[in-house]
Design goal:
Keywords: Membrane, Transmembrane, Transmembrane helix. This protein is mostly helical. The chain contains six helices and no strands.
């Protein structure tokens, strides 16, 4: 987010920051699928039904929906800032829009993600209990 306020002469700083952020983001895929596994186990423990296929399908649908919405947001922001796709030189407004797309807009979504994780209730302690019960053939309502 701080890169938004840097002068354009320091373009290499946001570039390096972006590369480092993307390296860190590489772990999100593994985290996401481990959370799906936790949800599957919790769902089985709670309902005595294992619906892994439905959970994976819903997850893939949401991923595709996110890609579509993200692409739409990209197009809307570029249009709002009068980006000209066939132009070799962009207006100051278009450059500002591109800078926003690399700095403040992703930062907003990262903050929303960090905030939403506060509501994730499947902690390590909860999941240890769930897995222990499932290994013994016990369920939440039995």
């Amino acid at each position: 987010m701080a890169c938004f306020w840097l002068p354009l002469e320091f373009w290499v700083i946001p570039l390096i920051a972006h590369v480092l952020i993307q390296i860190v983001q590489g772990g999100n895929g593994a985290l996401q699928w481990s959370m799906i596994t936790d949800a599957n186990n919790y769902g089985e423990w709670k309902t005595q039904r294992r619906i892994t296929g439905m959970n994976v399908a819903a997850n893939i649908f949401v991923i595709k929906l996110g890609v579509a919405v993200g692409g739409a947001i990209l197009g809307w922001v570029l249009a709002w800032f009068n980006y000209q796709s066939n132009s070799t030189v962009q207006s100051e407004s278009a450059i500002q829009g591109v800078i926003l797309l690399f700095t403040l807009i992703p930062s907003l979504f990262y903050l929303l993600t960090a905030f939403s994780i506060k509501f994730y209730k499947l902690t390590e302690n909860v999941m240890n209990g769930v897995v222990s019960d499932l290994n013994k053939g016990e369920f939440a309502n039995s």
